[in-house]
Specification:
InterPro entries: Phage_F116_Orf28. It holds the Pfam family DUF1654. It comes from Pseudomonas frederiksbergensis. This is DUF1654 domain-containing protein. The chain has 4 helices and 3 strands. The protein is of the alpha+beta class. A 3-stranded antiparallel sheet has the order 1-3-2. The chain is globular and about 35 Å long. β2 (about 65) and β3 (about 75) form a beta hairpin. α1 (about 5-25) crosses α3 (about 45-60). The longest helix has 21 residues, at about 5-25. The chain has helices spanning about 5-25, 30-35, 45-60, 80; strands at about 35-40, 65, 75.
């Protein structure tokens, strides 16, 4: 029997997928060296989930978010933020 996902569970899943994708990008060895990454929302990602994840990252101490044209963001931390 198939299960139908509720809108609330879809939003939570989308939020988690956005968060995991950004986490993987940030964890990449090359990104860790420069301590900055530029990320854009994928077409299949919920705009609400994207905004929520970016807002939560923005509230993190030691992290700077720069909003770029086209909706992308540049996430920087530590040395990048001090430059």
């Amino acid at each position: 029997m198939s299960q139908i996902a509720s809108p609330a569970s879809h939003a939570r899943d989308s939020y988690e997928l956005v968060g995991r994708r950004i986490q993987r990008l940030i964890a990449a060895p090359g990104v860790q060296k420069v301590q900055v990454v530029t990320v854009a929302r994928n077409d299949d990602e919920s705009p609400e989930a994207w905004r929520q994840v970016i807002q939560e990252i923005e509230e993190t101490s030691g992290v700077r978010i720069e909003h770029l044209d086209g909706g992308a963001v540049r996430i920087g931390w530590r040395q990048y933020c001090e430059a």
